[in-house]
Write a structure and sequence with these properties.
Length: 226
């Protein structure tokens, strides 16, 4: 059922009418913390979707493009911007190469494509002129004590902020988990008929992992209904 918002009332009805429920939501809005309506500002998903749709076929990408993030999506966006004609593409990542979540082969492919990396660098803001991206405000980062996940916490050195000129900023720092979706299915959970997988559980991983979790869920649901 397309274009359907699942609120608590609908979730309770689903729990009553169906024998099993598999919740496989994606994530919500980007959590980059930067918002802009300036031309040249994109989320990574928006940029890659536009590129795949051929929207840059005539104009290409020119000048300098900055990519905020350090995952595989950030690398994909950076390589795509380079292939579309950007003179320089700089990936800004707030931790070191060692902590970078992108796969090693993705990093190597980006380097071979001519992508540059600014490690231990945080994007603070997007600079605008005449409703277009004109550059970014950056700041160096020092790594502090490890967080709950074991990675050292980035400590932004705001007093050392500096600006670099550019023509595009692509944000690729992941998305937030949608609040309240799983909680809405509390009736199904109490009945033992709720199964959950995908990014709603992992917080965002790979398509391969999501498919694997779906297969596990299918087997679990089959056992449950049997």
């Amino acid at each position: 059922r397309l274009n359907t918002t699942v609120d608590e009332e609908l979730a309770e009805r689903i729990a009553r009418e169906y024998d099993a429920v598999y919740l496989a939501c994606g994530l919500g809005e980007p959590n980059a913390g930067l918002l802009s309506v300036a031309s040249g500002f994109y989320s990574a998903e928006q940029f890659l979707r536009s590129a795949n749709a051929g929207e840059f076929a005539e104009t290409g990408v020119s000048g300098t493009a900055f990519v905020q993030g350090g995952g595989n999506t950030a690398i994909d966006a950076a390589i795509t911007a380079k292939r579309l004609g950007a003179e320089r593409v700089l990936v800004c990542y707030r931790r070191s190469r060692h902590e970078m979540p992108a796969w090693p082969e993705e990093f190597v492919a980006a380097v071979r494509a001519g992508v540059e990396f600014l490690f231990l660098t945080q994007v603070l803001d997007v600079l605008e002129a005449n409703d277009r991206v004109a550059g970014v405000l950056l700041a160096p980062v020092m790594l502090g004590e490890p967080d709950e996940g074991g990675r050292r916490r980035p400590e932004v050195q705001h007093d050392l902020a500096y600006a670099l000129k550019g023509d595009m900023l692509i944000t690729a720092t992941g998305k937030e988990t949608q609040d309240g979706v799983a909680e809405a299915f509390s009736a199904a959970q109490k009945a033992g008929k709720l199964f959950v997988g995908g990014d709603a559980v992992s917080g965002g991983a790979t398509v391969v992992q999501a498919v694997a979790e779906a297969k596990q869920a299918v087997a679990a649901i089959d056992d449950f209904l049997s």
